[in-house]
Design goal:
Blueprint (H helix, E strand, L loop, with lengths): L1 E3 L2 E4 L2 E4 L2 E4 L16 E10 L6 H12 L17 E6 L2 H7 L11 E8 L3 H17 L4 E6 L17 E8 L7 H21 L2 H4 L3 E6 L2 E6 L28 E9 L15 E5 L4 H10 L26 H14 L4 H8 L12 H10 L10 E6 L3 E6 L8 E5 L3 E5 L12 E6 L5 E5 L4 E3 L1 H9 L4 H8 E3 L18 H7 L4 H14 L4 E2 L21 E3 L22 E5 L13 E5 L6 H13 L6 E5 L1 E3 L7 H17 L4 E5 L7 E3 L2 H14 L7 E5 L6 H9 L4 E3 L1 H10 L6 H20 L5 H4 L5 E3 L4 H7 L4 E2 L6 H15 L29 H13 L2 H12 L12 E3 L18 H4 L3 E5 L7 H14 L2 E3 L23 E4 L8 H5 L3 E5 L10 E3 L6 H7 L7 E3 L9 H14 L4 E7 L4 H10 L4 E5 L8 E2 H6 L4 H14 L7 E5 L5 H10 L3 E4 L1 H6 L22 H4 ...
Parallel strand pairs: 21-25, 26-28, 28-30, 30-31, 32-33, 35-36, 35-45, 37-38, 38-41, 41-42, 42-44, 44-45, 47-48, 48-49, 49-50, 50-51, 51-52, 52-53, 53-54
Antiparallel strand pairs: 1-2, 2-3, 3-4, 5-12, 5-17, 6-11, 6-12, 7-9, 7-10, 8-9, 13-14, 14-15, 15-19, 16-17, 16-18, 19-20, 22-43, 23-32, 24-25, 27-29, 34-46, 39-40, 54-56, 55-56
Helix pairs in contact: 3-4, 6-16, 9-10, 9-11, 12-22, 13-18, 13-19, 15-16, 17-19, 18-19, 23-24, 23-36, 26-36, 29-40, 30-32, 33-36, 38-40, 42-43
């Protein structure tokens, strides 16, 4: 132990300010795991196109960093950021001046390494000595060291003890190296050698050791500092003193501001990295690292020669996704690829389904696909190798990326515009990076290379099509075999199905709809059966795995409406050497369009290999073990199979088929998932996996989750032979179409599971291991599922063998009862002799009797059935017991001393059940009850009728205190938000995390349509949450928006329990959320795929405990309230939840049952017999629930809580929160699977920071005080108070976010949605607006901006008007330049927008009623639109009108390209006929008619408000231009409008007759 000042060091932990903190990430403890940390950020670059270095570029780069500060975050230490940095060219003149003791060679003839080293002279000297020895060994001249001067006084208290020594190492270019690229490669090899050698010295030396950069071209200055602390800005001194020297010159600066989910000061994770900075998340990084390791044996390179072995491991374990990507990029660049080519190989655009893509370019992508799987996920990456600098956007455009060019040859690129003040007269172009596109500046050529030029050059570099024919063959092109010599299994189909555990439910609920309709099955009400580790039933291994999903840190994708970016393509066979840039050693692959293969496909592949033995060698390995052989068991057999697979690859096999097709009574099939993963990982460890394709041919897999698990753990293709045979039997009338349907449904389902994690391609998903395990032992995971998270210890191989053998043997017992039938199942519905359910006839009956008769004793009987699980285990918490209070320093107390039930019930809330999914009667019943007890009800995502905002005559209130804001934004108006106590952002739903939803048209009656601002009879689509929540900093922006929309409301974020949710929760707290909900996977739903209900998310006990532990570790727990929901039923559940860390509690199913629900699980069918989950007027009359019933239920729960608190010795509820040392596990568990369950990690209690409570005791500090809207409100008082018209002039910049939102709140608070008369408050602004300009803008407010906007302009606009036009002095061409960013008009309700220029991606997404005119738009324009009018006076991108169910759009289609760009699933194109009638005032009322008048009026308005030359030209020659317009009309919307028209005509006729 050593002391320095007031800091005491103990190994890698330090005490400062009486707070326990870590240098870097803490070690794994409890449920916390640093591997689950996430980050996101803002990126930017500034460059001189002429490659003229200057200090001004560096200064401007630092200034850009400062203006990205809002994209970062701070934790408990206000002066501790998540990291910032700047990457520049090596400043030769500066270094010559600074290192006079070293005779520096000429520029570029030496390399500079930046080193972080622990502040310990002994450590430093040892590392210096080692490095100098390695330089000598590698024959690289060592020149000397320089200590880089740093100034740490301004850093936060938590960062100061972690500050490393920063040194520059200088090495000279060896005489035998002539080319600069060869010199860079040698430096890379040297760096890898140094890093490995220091690591081998041990943790004492390697701790804090890191090499940020080592190059002859570039140098990196980065650290765990705030954006304004990197270098000196104004009068504030920066950390790196070098950066203030005028001789620090560069022709470019790459900058990065990080937003991490943690607050632990980890210097190595600050960005930029050596070649890039990344805003996004690589979702497939686990698989990418595995595949990189698997290349070890085949990776050869003429460039590296014998140095190739020195660079392993290429990617170190424990790095961030961005750092791992950087490592892989370095390999490709140093291996001979240009950096542009390498980036396109790693992040290819969506080429598979793009029929507009150049064939040569498509061939380039396809040739490289087997060589390198995509690094999949949302990404805006700025990159440089010192020769070229550029940026690339992911295939779906899920990150903002804007840039401008000036007439003095400057390029400025960033996540948003306005980071630097630039004279408008000097800007010649403003544009954006589009999905899959690249921006590139070649410093040697002193020119910007367009995306088209880059790709043209690459596509013509080789004859990629010819190489494709030599390396790949499509499975469709392999002829079918008429006969097969393979042995056919002759066991009866029923016997086979029994042996593999098929149930009647598998057939009826899952397989039957797949075979008949090619759709996966839908269910409702969530799940209430035990997890597999608790079930007494025999369970397949797949069921122990839970699907991961995207929430907050990266977005899920809609695989249906955005299918253009999705792909199920994969390759079977040997993947070539990625460093074979001369294409001498290509892949040898069979290409499959989707991974589910029929038996005839297997036969085709085998027959093809026999005819082409030199090209394809196939080995079939049986995955069976003989139950009669004593020495054979699962473990020994898997080891045997792994060795056989290894030998098979060494002997030349390039496809292995693992098959159980010869299963018999004697030969038991191994669990397919276990053997697939074992072989996959074994071959990775041996460096052989990329040499072979892996097909699993199994009778076991029959549902989507099974296929996803097999793919996730390495199966390149799957042949579910028994499931396909059974599909043919289930739909005999369809013939082979039944199998095709089954495969199609499987493909759709797999795409949905992939998309929930934000993954677009099966090739990336394969081997990516996007799962958590529940109830599997660490030894099992480490051996067979390496890298998978399992937070609860459980069964091992022996139990799996027992479960497998029991299931198999039972099939051959010849029991009369089961001889001719499958077991019932009972997973999806309550069945006699089926799986146990918590909600059964007894529990439903007793709860309803208790609340209706106000009988606490009956409630206690109900609670006993739920709580006592000694005989039948149902939940994890059922295994928990409470310790004797004396063991933790308390004693039992009298119940009179305990906090009152009246106070406890205020902590309760009902779940988010939307009006639409349940009836008005049920919805208002819950609201009235919760308002009576001081709790909260939740609107769900369907809006709320305005009559509910006013109190009822009897004093009750139907107003829901919690207003939910979900991806659909249905009914989210400024008035709706202003009438809330809490606004909840729904990031995910327990029953279907990562997914949106759909409300069928028959449920959308006139009232629902009015509330949701849609059309009666037209179905509504809820997209997955990815439109304004691309990442953690976007969530922070939405929180900021909503806090401005109602400063008095608390902002809540709803997450779903999964491993890693704790780190997300820490990020949510840093994003300034006031409240957080952790939802368990048991939560209910109105409708969801059964795959999601059963297999996504985890029990709330895991997610809650991890959340609490991580927040405490970060010092963030006291500033955020934590709620838990999803399957809460009793007071004991509440107490367990509190002990694990919850302040508040959400209930959904239980209060519905109290209201009359009888758990029919038919909510999605609109046939609810008790009037709850239906909009049918007759069925709604059957609802007989009363608020009293719900009130009684919650008071019963509170009284049960009080009894338990008394027994445990707690007087006050807060005392109980987070006290996990009260919990223990029952000793005697009579359950062969549950005996191994271990909850130590759940019960772990981290130490709180001094001054921090383990419960919510503080308020968040929201940055909404000194903002532009406060000024606007002050200047608008006359208008707000007296409706007097006022005009305001003001400047605006990118840090002024959500402008107009708080002002709108003040208006609607007084006047409601009707607001003020048009243009009462007219605000003239000049400059670049920050994000969410005009969000939720109320009627009567006009924002007239001369400048430009960023993302989310007019989000949720509620009646106001927004006009944006370029400044008068601007020299850009407006219709060819960006004027607003991405996701403009998201969830717009009403109002007008006129934008003189081009918008980014997803323009008018989910527009419900606003009118907008724009002069061009990107991909996915008018996506999910349900109302309103959009006019586009220019080009649009791909996928126009996807999911568009209402409203209309007009597109100027001058080049007739719209036919190739629109999504024809839900809309059709119409020509517009000029009307000769006079313009009618009511033309806006019916979207079937008056198109030419409407269009002309809107274009005229656009001309009036923006002075648009494009609009003027069209208006002046309207008849000619009208022929070039296309009307985009939703098909279903048109049908409903026509039907309504006929109905009106009939009614008019009746009136006339009358």
């Amino acid at each position: 132990m050593t002391g320095v000042g007031n800091i005491i060091f103990m190994d890698d932990i330090f005490m400062t300010k009486n707070k326990l903190t870590n240098i870097g990430f803490p070690k794994k403890q409890g449920l916390y795991d640093s591997d689950k940390e996430h980050d996101s950020c803002g990126v930017g670059l500034i460059a001189d196109i002429n490659n003229e270095a200057s200090h001004d570029i560096v200064k401007k780069g630092l200034a850009m960093l400062c203006n990205l500060e809002h994209r970062g975050a701070v934790g408990a230490d206000p002066k501790a950021g998540d990291g910032s940095g700047i990457l520049i060219q090596i400043p030769h003149n500066f270094l010559v001046k600074e290192v006079k003791n070293i005779n520096l060679p000429e520029k570029n003839n030496y390399g500079v390494g930046v080193f972080f080293i622990k502040k310990d002279n002994r450590v430093k000297e040892a590392i210096f000595k080692l490095i100098e020895e390695i330089c000598e060994k590698e024959k690289v001249p060592f020149l000397g060291w320089r200590e880089c001067p740093t100034y740490g006084d301004e850093l936060g208290w938590s960062v100061k003890p972690t500050i490393p020594l920063v040194y520059h190492l200088f090495v000279g270019k060896p005489e035998n190296i002539y080319h600069q690229d060869d010199w860079e490669r040698k430096i890379y090899v040297l760096r890898q050698c140094i890093d490995k050698a220091v690591a081998q010295m041990g943790d004492q030396y390697y701790d804090q050791f890191y090499i940020p950069s080592f190059s002859s071209r570039t140098i990196l200055y980065k650290g765990m500092v705030l954006s304004d602390q990197v270098g000196t800005v104004g009068n504030q001194l920066g950390f790196f003193e070098d950066l203030s020297d005028p001789l620090i010159e560069s022709s470019f600066a790459l900058i990065h501001q990080r937003f991490s989910t943690n607050t632990f000061p980890t210097w190595s994770l600050a960005q930029p990295f050596r070649m890039l900075c990344h805003n996004g998340e690589i979702n497939t990084v686990r698989g990418n690292i595995n595949w990189m390791n698997a290349r070890h044996s085949i990776l050869k390179s003429d460039k590296f020669s014998t140095d190739i072995d020195k660079i392993w491991p290429i990617i170190k374990e424990g790095q961030s996704d961005s750092a791992s990507f950087d490592n892989a990029l370095e390999l490709l660049v140093h291996g001979g690829y240009s950096i542009a080519e390498a980036m396109l190989i790693m992040i290819p655009e969506a080429w598979q389904n793009n029929h507009l893509l150049d064939e040569k370019l498509k061939s380039f992508y396809e040739y490289h696909a087997p060589l390198m799987e995509p690094w999949d996920g949302p990404a805006n990456i700025a990159f440089t190798d010192g020769k070229q600098i550029g940026a690339l956007l992911d295939r779906n455009g899920l990150r903002p990326a804007r840039y401008l060019l000036t007439n003095d040859n400057k390029l400025i690129f960033a996540s948003e515009m306005g980071l630097l003040p630039v004279d408008e007269k000097s800007i010649i172009s403003k544009w954006r990076l589009q999905p899959g596109k690249m921006l590139l500046l070649d410093l040697d050529k002193k020119a910007i290379i367009s995306d088209e030029e880059i790709k043209k050059e690459i596509s013509e570099k080789n004859d990629w099509k010819k190489l494709l024919h030599l390396s790949q063959i499509n499975i469709e092109n392999i002829p079918e075999t008429k006969t097969s010599k393979r042995i056919k299994n002759t066991l009866p189909q029923l016997k086979l199905m029994q042996a593999f555990g098929y149930t009647q439910e598998d057939e009826s609920f899952l397989m039957n709809p797949m075979a008949h309709t090619a759709m996966e099955a839908i269910g409702s009400m969530g799940t209430d059966t035990p997890v597999s580790a608790l079930s007494r039933k025999s369970k397949l291994l797949y069921t122990y795995f839970k699907q991961n999903f995207a929430q907050v840190t990266n977005p899920p994708i809609d695989p249906i409406r955005e299918e253009i970016v999705m792909s199920l393509f994969n390759y079977l066979g040997e993947r070539g050497n990625i460093l074979d840039i001369e294409t001498k050693d290509p892949s040898t692959c069979i290409k499959v369009k989707q991974p589910i293969l029929k038996e005839k496909d297997i036969n085709k592949i085998i027959n093809f290999s026999k005819k082409n033995p030199k090209t394809f060698k196939i080995d079939e390995i049986e995955i069976l073990f003989n139950k009669e052989e004593e020495k054979e068991n699962i473990r020994s057999k898997i080891e045997e199979i792994c060795i056989a697979s290894e030998q098979s690859v060494i002997s030349g096999s390039n496809i292995i088929i693992l098959t159980d097709i010869n299963v018999s009574e004697k030969n038991i099939a191994l669990p397919a998932l276990l053997v697939t993963s074992a072989v996959h990982h074994h071959l990775i460890r041996k460096g052989l996996r990329t040499s072979v394709g892996l097909i699993i041919e199994t009778a076991e897999a029959r549902e989507i989750h099974h296929f996803c698990c097999l793919a996730g753990y390495g199966a390149d293709a799957i042949s579910p032979w028994l499931a396909l045979r059974r599909a043919s039997e289930l739909a005999k009338d369809l013939g082979e179409e039944a199998q095709d349907n089954f495969i199609k449904a499987s493909g759709k389902g797999m795409l949905k599971v992939m998309s929930k994690m934000g993954i677009s391609t099966y090739q990336s998903y394969c081997g990516a291991q996007i799962f958590d395990a529940i109830g599997l032992s660490s030894s099992l995971i480490d051996e067979y599922f390496t890298g998978t998270s399992s937070k609860i210890e459980g069964i091992d191989v022996d139990e799996i063998e027992r479960e497998t053998s029991n299931r198999h043997n039972k099939a051959f017992e010849n029991l009369p009862a089961l001889d001719n039938m499958l077991e019932v199942g009972g997973e999806y519905a309550l069945r006699l002799r089926g799986e146990e359910h918590v909600w059964n006839s007894n529990t439903v009956r007793d709860l309803q009797h208790a609340v209706r008769s106000d009988s606490f004793s009956t409630y206690e009987n109900y609670a006993k059935q739920i709580n006592d699980q000694d005989k039948k285990l149902m939940t994890l918490r059922g295994l928990f017991k409470f310790k004797n209070p004396e063991s933790y320093g308390r004693t039992k107390i009298d119940i009179d001393q305990v906090e009152s039930a009246k106070e406890i019930v205020k902590r309760f809330a009902t779940g988010a059940m939307s009006y639409g999914s349940i009836s008005r009667e049920a919805h208002t019943n819950l609201a009235i009850a919760m308002n009576r007890i001081g709790g909260k009800s939740n609107t769900g995502e369907g809006g709320e009728e305005v009559d509910r905002y006013k109190p009822m005559d009897n004093g009750d209130s139907m107003r829901s205190a919690i207003k939910q804001v979900a991806s659909g934004r249905f009914g989210v108006t400024a008035e709706y938000l202003s009438n809330s106590d809490m606004i909840q952002i729904k990031m995910a739903q327990g029953a279907k995390p990562g997914e949106g939803g759909q409300l069928p048209g028959h449920k959308v009656d006139e009232t629902i349509a009015k509330v949701r601002y849609s059309t009666p009879g037209v179905g509504l689509i809820s997209p997955p949450p990815h439109h304004d929540i691309y990442s953690i900093e976007d969530l922070a922006q939405l929180i900021y928006d909503l806090k401005n929309a109602n400063p008095e409301a608390a902002i809540s974020v709803k997450l779903v329990s999964e491993v890693g949710v704790g780190t997300v929760a820490a990020g949510v707290s840093k994003a300034k959320a006031d409240h957080l909900t952790i939802s368990g996977f048991e939560g209910g739903t109105g409708a969801s795929p059964l795959t999601s209900i059963k297999h996504a998310g985890s029990p709330w006990e895991i997610g809650l405990a991890e959340t609490h532990q991580t927040l405490v570790l970060n010092g963030l727990r006291s500033r955020i309230a934590v709620q838990v929901d999803g399957g809460l039923r009793t007071g004991r559940d509440v107490v367990v939840g509190a002990l694990l860390g919850a302040d508040e509690f959400g209930f959904s199913t239980a209060p519905l049952i109290a209201s009359g629900c009888i758990m029919m699980r038919k909510c999605h069918l609109n046939t609810c017999p008790v009037g709850i989950a239906t909009q049918d007027k007759e069925l709604r009359k059957l609802f007989n629930g009363q608020p009293e019933h719900v009130v009684n239920y919650f008071f019963f729960v509170a009284e049960e809580v009080r009894k338990l608190m008394a027994e445990l010795g707690f007087k006050n509820f807060n005392e109980m929160v987070g006290e996990t040392d009260v919990l223990d596990t029952y000793d005697a568990i009579d359950h062969w699977k549950a005996e191994g369950l271990n909850f130590e990690k759940l019960f772990y209690k981290p130490e709180s920071w001094e001054g921090e409570d383990s419960f919510n005791s503080k308020s968040q500090e929201h940055d909404i005080h000194d903002i532009l809207d406060r000024k606007l409100i002050d200047e608008s008082q006359a208008a707000i108070e007296n409706k007097l018209p006022i005009k305001i002039n003001t400047k605006i910049n990118n840090t002024d976010r959500s402008t107009g939102t708080m002002l709108s709140h003040m208006v609607v608070k007084k006047y409601g949605h009707s607001g003020l008369p048009d243009d009462t408050i007219n605000i003239q602004l000049k400059g670049t607006a920050g994000q969410s300009f005009g969000a939720f803008l109320a009627k009567g407010i006009t924002l007239d901006l001369e400048g430009e906007g960023n993302d989310y302009v007019a989000k949720g606009i509620s009646g106001g008007r927004i006009t944006i036009r370029p400044p008068k002095e601007s020299i850009i061409t407006p219709h060819k330049s960006m004027i607003v960013g991405n996701t403009v008009l998201y969830g717009a309700i009403e109002g007008e927008c006129y934008f003189r220029g081009v918008a980014g991606e997803r323009f008018a997404v989910r527009n419900s009623g606003a009118t907008a005119v724009v002069e061009g738009a990107g991909d996915h324009c008018c996506e999910y639109m349900t109302g309103g009018i959009v006019v586009v006076l220019g080009k649009v991108g791909r996928n126009f009108g996807a999911g568009m169910s209402g409203g209309i759009a007009y597109v100027l289609d001058e080049d007739e390209s719209l036919n190739d760009l629109y999504n024809s699933q839900m809309v059709e194109l119409e020509t517009i006929i000029e009307s000769k009638d006079d313009i009618k005032d009511e033309f806006l009322d019916n979207h079937l008619f008056n198109d030419s008048e409407r269009l002309k009026k809107l274009i005229t308005n656009h001309m009036h408000y923006t002075n648009s030359e494009t609009a003027e030209k069209i208006v002046n020659d309207f008849s000619i231009y009208l022929k070039k317009f296309k009307k985009v009309m939703p098909i279903e919307y048109k049908r409903v409008l026509e039907k309504n028209l006929e109905k009106d005509k009939v009614e008019d006729n009746f009136e006339k007759i009358g």
